[in-house]
Amino acid sequence: QVQLVESGGGLEQAGGSLRLSCAASGRTFGYYAMGWFRQAPGKEREFVAGISAASGGRIYYGDFVKGRFTISRDNGKNTLYLQMNILKPEDTAVYYCAASNRGEFLTPARAMVLSEYPYWGQGTQVTVSS
Fold first, then answer.
1. Residue 44: beta bridge partners?
2. In degrees rounded to 5, what are phi and psi of residue 103?
3. pLDDT at 66
4. Could you report the per-residue pLDDT of 68-108, keeping only the tens digit for each?
5. Residues 18-33: what's their mean pLDDT?
6. N or C: which terminal CB in the chain sees fewer CB atoms within 10 Å?
């Protein structure tokens, strides 16, 4: 059974930074692509970033990221990360870690859709104050 547990969320001021972590268990983490999504109150869940399984593999970001966030993974530690810098109040959301059943995304667009990811964590709240 695949389990994903996010941590690292919290309250941060605008302009600050947070690093989210996602600890994975239940299968060989390094074989599968991973992603981060977020959901703000009253809004749909949206794609933040995705990373393929291989070291140095493909990485994709949502348009709103604009160089502020960095996704990475440590396959030796079974952990996915999201470094978030220059936080804005509009980044306030619950952030979810998600796992694909593929090692590589078939297309860039596939990395951005919820249906690509059969496994999800419970989410971690990020609140950015102005």
1. none
2. -80, -30
3. 86
4. 999 999 999 999 999 999 999 999 999 999 999 999 999 99
5. 96
6. N
What DSSP state is assigned to residue 118? Answer: -
| Total residue count of the chain as it appears in this document | 130
Q: In Å, what is the CA distance from 56 to each residue of 22, 59, 71, 78, 124?
A: 19, 9, 12, 16, 26
Q: Which residue type, as a one-letter code, is found at position 130?
A: S
Two tokens, residue 84: 């978030």
One DSSP character per residue, 57-110 reads: --EEE-TTTTTSEEEEEETTTTEEEEEE-S--GGG-EEEEEEE-SSSS-SSTGG
Residue type, 94: V
Please give the structure tokens belonging to residue 70: 């960095």
The residues with which 129 forms a beta bridge, in sequence order, are 13
